[in-house]
């Protein structure tokens, strides 16, 4: 028996969300008295033995260039093969963009129950029950998996990795690789920015900022803190900011450690995308803005007066 | 070409979330039901756009649910689509739902199957991927653009910090999100026409659920906002640094 953790990578580098999955899987192996093994697909530049620090004992690596880009169908077959070879009774992966493409098909292929978007370790005291977010962050559901093999996809930024000293054994794994049917022809990444889905700190602006020309203060604060930038739907719809920055019910859903909202009223649809953030700060001149009810810290004031002072204080703190 | 669009019934985005029967069921009393926004705004409208480009296209809608889903299915038919199929069973297990859809799809010979990227109630993002695997079809998730030329689909999908463009031959299953299309409002002609469009009810195949909901819970109430004076925003920075230890 083992816990098999699928480690997702992009351009040869393991994603932050997969380190979280590795550590979660290792904790789960400890909890169920088995060992944690990892599966890495495609060519990687990272040192895979370092996954040992996250509690992984053994890394199975399929270094085939056909696996450098995602074809969900192909990845599912390879993961299913590795799961059989390592006699995994639990499979863990991140519920990141690729995990959302892979986990459901894997569940259907193995006829094994999936909890998509887990937020905590399973309760194994009586069966196998996993907690996940439902109703767009407004509630949680505890889901029982009834099949012998269990599959969990872990919400990014919901589990803090625990680091130790271990070194993982890395072994090549030979899998049947069919030609991918989905061919990736282009990858366009926003250069020099922290991906919103992986960011721990997020600075976000809304219509209260009056126009795209006023985003300098959002960007400056984000840069000082190493934060990503986000925006409300109204802002994305008005093309003040690119669509990938839109968070909320119909945009991205994020759970950073800090969500710092400037000039956003906090309609229920916006909250649905950000209410899992650990700390919410709201700056709004309207004391009746609904966002204050969901916030941890707030300032009722004019962003144009308050933000420059905040930026100065952060600069002082950072010694800049 | 035949397109199947999967339609889920979800509570309205502003619905109050509460639970009944010892927190084992969603409290549906007084809740307004809608078509899951991702299914409606992106999956269905993109399918309608493809039909507008090629009028020989046939669009079928599928819902897995009870008769209480009929109003939202009629609304979907008012937007577009030629006929709807409802598999008459209630389930919260995504594998059960996907298996019912796959059973219908297998008979229908669809070249495209569209779903929303997730439902706004269970947020599993699971149906499309499961249906694809059950039908042995390729799956492209979180699509923001979809173009078709002959048998070749060019699909843009979200990745961390950007997007990826992929090519795949149909048939394919695609989960759709913002960018695919713009929300539409049904017009009077559509609403009138929807009344006479076929809505077929089929009985479910026997499928064993892989998961079950044990209980729901609401997040702990927030302690309340700590307000800082607008004359002293430096205090906010101090609190975030020293108290919340965020940076």
Question: How would you sum up this structure in a few lines?
Answer:
The complex is a heterodimer of chains A (320) and B (247). Chain A has 320 residues and is of the alpha/beta class. Helix content of chain A is 27%, strand content 28%.
3D structure, described in words:
The complex is a heterodimer of chains A (320) and B (247). By secondary structure, chain A is of the alpha/beta class. Chain A has two domains: 2-172, Rossmann fold (3-Layer(aba) Sandwich); 196-317, TPP-binding domain (Rossmann fold), CATH 3.40.50. Chain A is 27% helix and 28% strand. Chain A contains eight helices and 17 strands. In chain A, the strands form four sheets. In chain A, strands 7-10-6-1-4-5-11 form a seven-stranded parallel sheet, with helices on both faces. In chain A, helix 2 (72-85) crosses helix 3 (97-110). The longest helix of chain A is centred in the N-terminal third of the chain and has 17 residues, at 16-32. The mean pLDDT of chain A is 96. Chain B is of the alpha/beta class and 247 residues long. Chain B has a single domain, classed as 3-Layer(aba) Sandwich (Rossmann fold), CATH 3.40.50.620. Helix content of chain B is 28%, strand content 31%. A nine-stranded mixed sheet of chain B has the order 11-10-9-12-8-1-6-7-13, sandwiched between helices. In chain B, strands 2-5 form a two-stranded antiparallel sheet. In chain B, strands 3-4 form a two-stranded antiparallel ribbon. In chain B, a hairpin with a 2-residue loop joins strand 10 and strand 11. In chain B, helix 2 (70-79) crosses helix 5 and helix 3 packs across helix 4 (127-135). The chains are: A alpha/beta (320), B alpha/beta (247). At the A-B interface, helix 2, helix 3, strand 7, strand 8 and strand 9 of A face helix 1, helix 3, helix 4, strand 9 and strand 10 of B.
């Amino acid at each position: 028996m083992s816990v098999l953790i699928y480690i997702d990578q992009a351009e040869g580098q393991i994603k932050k969300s997969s380190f979280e999955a590795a550590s979660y899987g290792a904790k789960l192996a400890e909890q169920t008295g088995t060992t944690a093994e990892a599966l890495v697909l495609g060519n990687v530049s990272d040192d895979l033995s370092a996954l040992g620090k996250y509690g992984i004992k053994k890394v199975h690596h399929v270094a085939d260039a056909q696996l450098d880009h995602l074809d969900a169908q192909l990845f599912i077959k390879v993961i299913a093969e590795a799961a059989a070879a390592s006699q995994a009774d639990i499979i863990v992966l991140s519920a990141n963009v690729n995990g959302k493409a892979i986990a459901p098909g894997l569940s259907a292929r193995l006829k094994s129950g999936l909890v998509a978007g887990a937020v905590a370790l399973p309760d194994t005291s009586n069966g196998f029950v996993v907690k996940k977010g439902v109703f767009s962050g407004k509630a949680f559901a505890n889901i029982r998996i009834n099949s012998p093999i269990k599959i969990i996809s872990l919400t990014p930024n919901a589990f803090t990795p625990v680091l130790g000293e271990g070194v993982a054994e890395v072994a090549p794994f030979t899998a049947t690789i069919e030609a991918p049917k989905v061919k990736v022809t282009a990858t366009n990444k926003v250069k020099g920015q922290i991906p919103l889905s992986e960011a721990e700190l997020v600075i976000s602006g809304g219509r209260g900022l009056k126009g795209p020309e006023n985003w300098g203060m959002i960007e400056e604060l984000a840069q000082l803190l190493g934060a990503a930038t986000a925006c409300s739907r109204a802002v994305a719809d008005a093309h003040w900011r690119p669509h990938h920055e839109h968070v909320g019910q119909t945009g991205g859903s994020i759970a950073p450690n800090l969500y710092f909202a400037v000039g956003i009223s906090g309609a229920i649809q916006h909250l649905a995308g950000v209410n899992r953030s650990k700390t919410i700060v709201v700056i709004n001149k309207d004391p009746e803005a609904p966002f204050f009810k969901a916030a941890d810290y707030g300032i009722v004031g004019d962003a144009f007066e308050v933000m420059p002072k905040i930026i100065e204080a952060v600069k002082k703190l950072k010694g800049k | 070409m035949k397109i199947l669009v999967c339609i889920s019934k979800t509570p309205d985005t502003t619905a109050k979330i509460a639970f009944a029967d010892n927190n084992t069921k969603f409290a549906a009393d007084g809740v307004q039901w809608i078509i899951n926004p991702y299914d409606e705004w992106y999956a269905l409208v993109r399918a309608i756009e493809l039909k507008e480009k090629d009028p020989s296209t046939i669009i079928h809608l599928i819902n897995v649910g009870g008769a209480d889903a009929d109003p939202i299915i009629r609304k979907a038919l008012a937007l577009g689509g030629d006929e709807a199929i409802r598999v008459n069973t209630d389930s919260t297990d995504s594998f059960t739902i996907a298996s019912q859809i796959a059973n219908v799809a297998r008979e229908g010979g669809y070249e495209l199957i569209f779903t929303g990227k997730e439902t706004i109630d269970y947020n599993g993002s699971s149906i499309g991927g499961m249906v694809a695997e059950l039908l042995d079809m390729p799956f492209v998730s979180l699509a923001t653009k979809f173009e078709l030329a002959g048998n070749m689909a060019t699909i843009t999908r979200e990745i961390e910090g950007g997007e990826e463009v992929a090519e795949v031959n149909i048939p394919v299953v695609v989960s759709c999100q913002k960018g695919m299309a713009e929300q539409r409002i049904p017009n009077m002609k559509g609403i009138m026409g929807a009344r006479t469009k076929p809505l077929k009810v089929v009985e479910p195949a026997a499928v064993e659920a892989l998961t079950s909901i044990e209980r729901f819970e609401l997040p702990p109430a927030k302690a309340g906002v700590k307000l800082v004076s607008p004359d002293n925003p430096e205090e906010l920075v101090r609190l975030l640094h020293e108290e919340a230890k965020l940076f």
